[in-house]
Amino acid sequence: MQSRVVIALCLALVLMAGVVAQQRQARPPRGATVLFDGKDLSKWVSRDGRTPARWEITPNGAMQVKAGTGDIMTRDEFGSFQLHIEFRIPEMPGASGQGKGNSGVYLHGLYEIQVLDAYQNQTYSKGGCASIYGIKDPDKNMAKPPGQWQTYDITFIAPKFDSSGNVLAKPRVTLRWNGEIVHNSVEIPNITVGGIGNQMRATGPILLQDHGNPVQYRNIWIRPLRD
Ligand code: MG
Model-level pTM? Predict the structure, then answer.
């Protein structure tokens, strides 16, 4: 009897540790800047760099794309970094393909990591959720159903330039989608469509795409990395 109690206690402790670890995972590490804490869009601006960001703050502490108000981006720029961002695809039963839960996370404002419903939704190759848009599909589909929170943990290594501005090394990205690595230090050969500017740069903002669908984001933090 006693041993059963001990086993039950041990199990409870393990479960509690798991829950604590999960909560900890979402907490920003030392040296990170919180870009969105559920309260306001003070760290964000519209993609013209001047107009205040006009997305909505929802009662559940998320920012939500307000269709037609345009992309938003961070006021600050970053070189190489580690980025944590959580997103939630809305239920859109009548929609399909690229019209279902579409948004995107643009690194340096130039390279889109696609956000899309990829749970039971077909689209073209290199256009699905977690793809480096138009460049590479994720190694695995880690999609959760719409309505559930998902995570991207991104490590981005900025491109390197010589003194004349020629690209010496192209950017690289590692993406962990819902805990699983789906791009492992993948070189990004070119910028993707819909970003700001038309050439690689040493630093840039994080840009989030208004593709007309009410996708939500929360718990966004970034930690600059030294090269
Ligand atoms: Mg998109």
Answer: 0.89
Please state, in angstroms and rounded to a whole number, the distance separating the CA atoms of residues 118 and 130: 9
Q: From CA 112, how far away is CA 206, in angstroms rounded?
A: 10
DSSP 90: P
CA 111 to ligand 1 centroid distance, Å: 11
- CA 28 distance to own-chain centroid: 14
Q: 3-class DSSP state for residue 85? A: strand
- Report CA(182)–ligand 1 centroid distance (Å): 18
Angle made by CA atoms 219, 34, 138, in degrees to the nearest 5: 50
Q: Cα(68) to centroid of ligand 1, in Å? A: 14
What is the sign, positive or negative, of the torsion defined by CA atoms of 58, 208, 83, 15?
Answer: positive
Q: How far is the CA of 211 from the centre of ligand 1 (A)?
A: 6
Q: What is the pLDDT of residues 151-190, one digit of tens each?
A: 999 999 999 999 999 999 999 999 999 999 999 999 999 9
In this prediction, what percent of the chain has a pLDDT beyond 90?
Answer: 87
- CATH architecture of the domain 28-225 equals Sandwich (2.60)
